[in-house]
Amino acid sequence: MIDMDVVTLSRLQFAATAMYHFLFVPLTLGLSFLMAIMESVYVMTGREIWRRMTLFWGTCFGINFAMGVATGVVMEFQFGMNWSYYSHYVGDIFGAPLALEGLMAFFLEASFIGLFFFGWDRMSKVGHLVVTWLVAFGANFSALWILIANGWMQHPVGAVFNPDTMRMEVTDFMAVIFNPVAQAKFVHTVSAGYVTGAMFVMAVSSWYLLRGRHQEFAKRSMAVAASFGLAAALSVVVLGDESGYVTTENQKMKIAGMEAMWHTEPAPAAINVIAFPNMEKQENSFAISIPYLLGIIGTRSLTTELPGIVNLVDSAHGKIRDGITAYSALQKIRANPADAEARAVFDEKWPNLGYGLLVKQIRTDIENATPEDIAKAANSTIPNVPVLFWSFRVMVGLGLYFIAFFAAAFWLASRHQLGEKRWTLWVALFSLPLPWVAIESGWLLAEYGRQPWAIEGVLPTFYAASGLTLWDLVISLAIFLILYSVLAVIEVFLMLKAIKKGPLDHNPFETAPAGADVLPKPATAAPKL
Amino acid sequence: MHDIVPIDYETLRLIWWLLLGVLLIGFAVMDGFDLGIGALLPFVAKTDEERRIVINVVGPVWEGNQVWLILGGGAIFAAFPLLYAVSFSGLYLAMMVILIALIVRPVGFKYRSKIGDPGWRSKWDMVLCFAGVVPSLILGVAVGNVLLGLPFEFDDTLRTFYRGNFFQLLTPFALVAGLVSLSMLIMHGAALLTWKTSGPIADRARTYGRWAALAAIVLFALAGVWVAYGIGGHVLTSVIDPNGPSNPLGKTATVTTGAWLSNYKTYPWMMAAPILGFAGAVLALVGFTVRKPALTFITSGVAIFGIISTAGVSLFPFLLPSSISPNAGLTLWDASSSKLTLWVMLLSTAFFLPIILLYTAFVYRVMRGKVTSDSMGKNPNAY
């Protein structure tokens, strides 16, 4: 029998280390492009201030990047360490995007990051600019591959179960790579990173303006961040809607959970703006809803029904019974690999094998499951509705706020009125943590909302864990807790110190004669920001 | 669907076994000197200025080098999922210790010189030294334990059960293997320092490098004798179909003392691996003594190639033998991914690896030359 305490702690550890890692990733994604844009302006116009901007935001980028690298290695190893049955069961599909992430993205990003910092005085202007862009692309490619991997967990396509090797095996790589869930999630996630980078630049620059320091530097940085942020904020919401739409196709339970929709309603369904879902009674204690809206957003039609939670649980009963049949056939195949009859049964029923495995948390001999066991297993397919409901609303609310925020910033920037009203600067400064809140809510929704599945419909989370001891988990959790807390303090301390110190007020490389930085090069006809 | 793969399963598995070797050797050669230099930091550099020079030798390149380890992990996951599942979960706490080092190392490089306070800097120097010594040692101890076999077994759903704990990994043989690894990586780090620095740092590196090379030679020989007379090697006792499905429960195996050397009788060309290991280390020792830094660095790389290959070919066709259930040991024939995955990953690797090598070479070319106080002075980004 699987030790459920070990499973719980393994989940806690994975969630904590992943969420911690993702504090640093979005800033890397966003700042890398902002740096590349700023350096492009420097190369096109020759104005020294744009290089100083690149250098200063590069310093912040570096402090953040080190933590991203440090916490990222952990993620790569934890699948094998804590989720060894998962690694065996789906490694044939899931391992490939991780390896490709290394081949295509990490090497690119990590090889050129050294030149970004150390190559300023060893390379031509254009050469260094190319390096900066390669770093930005490397960072974003890595997001692409990890989201292909994650997209497969949400919507496992292009693979079948092989009874001879006791695992899922890939049949169609193109389906895995062009998984619509993965593509929508990729753009949604990197756009969220761009919003974070833009907000970081806005907030820090606002602080300089509030203090009356580095005015030129801050206003230019804000102008870039405002336009970049506006585009990103629009993209994050549009693609978020796209991934919401895709979710309704593939993860009906997740959307029913995040909308707290317990029962199927006649199409088009109403949307609950506010609700207090009650998990035990399987109803909402209180709700304010708008008629028709959910059905229209979720299905983009007036006639398609969205199934409610209770109805989905009902349909899980049949899937669980099919899964048990598949499991029994699998045991016959293991006893006698030549059993053609069992193979025929298995070929028909295997897609629901995962539902059969849900019963394993109740009893090991799942072939003897009683109707009560099956009902219990079916009930376990309900995710934590209140958490989903509210994390979704936090994310969407903040997403809409970011559009308004960056639209206003863009408007002020285009009228050269940035910083004229001090209260706008305070708003920008205090908006700094909001992208992180939105992003972590989004991940909570995506991953906690997928429970009880590690791979939707294929592999229950509890079944995927390693057979570690409780002590293993206590020790590793304690190590992460201590190490990550200490490093968080140091990181914030160094970041604040770098920000207080501010951008350089001189040219460190002395490549151009003094005073050259104020004169634009006459030969360049590039547009000026 | 699998018909689209133009190579047979056996060849693909063999290629991936070789590629796994390439990636692990790539890690040891490239990131190995970063680890070795970290381990040597407090010893070869006394003043803050000297320490900054040593750190800036690896400063521009360590991030790229570390990706060899990440890619190694990813490639094991993709090509040999069971190997990844069994070893990473079985060696759980050992992996945690390595992770501590890998978490503090990037931060150490980046944060150490952000603040001038000597107490702050010397603490980070200790951290960097720890982060160099510990992975070098533990990865070697892990390889030693692979040769001894890990105490794991499967149930019939291929779920892993590991019947050991962290302290049981620290056997005398495994510790010797750990010291082989540590001494060879220190040798390698010292070799790079003699190349990229000058004056007292290079002099000290030369001294430590000589001792490390000598230690690597002696310990590698000791481990060899131990493998021949002291520990059991695994031998297949049933025919295994190299084109069969990946299920390690379909074969039988037995344990015989000295059996890890039987491959050298069957395939005499495999002797090239230990010969290169010894020859490389001896030439590195000579290189340190006659002050030929480039030669020293290249030959110490050859030594690493030879020593790691020796472990790999001795185990062939095993990847990870089981000490408590020899039949469950993982071989390259019964623990790999599906044919299609191996094929797609081979295509990707064949495409990307040459590009990676090209731009890595470009980065090193841009950063060529010795690191001195002057070369660091101008760059506000220097560590």
TrEMBL record, chain B:
Pfam families: Cyt_bd_oxida_II (PF02322). It comes from the Bacteria. It is found in: Cell membrane. Coiled coil: none annotated. The chain crosses the membrane at residues 15-45, 66-84, 90-107, 127-150, 170-195, 207-229, 269-290, 297-320, 340-364. InterPro entries: Cyt-d_oxidase_su2. It is a multi-pass membrane protein. Keywords: Cell membrane, Electron transport, Heme, Iron, Membrane, Metal-binding, Transmembrane, Transmembrane helix, Transport. Signal peptide: none annotated. The keyword Cell membrane applies. NCBIfam families: cydB (TIGR00203). Belongs to the cytochrome ubiquinol oxidase subunit 2 family. This is Cytochrome d ubiquinol oxidase subunit II. The gene is cydB.
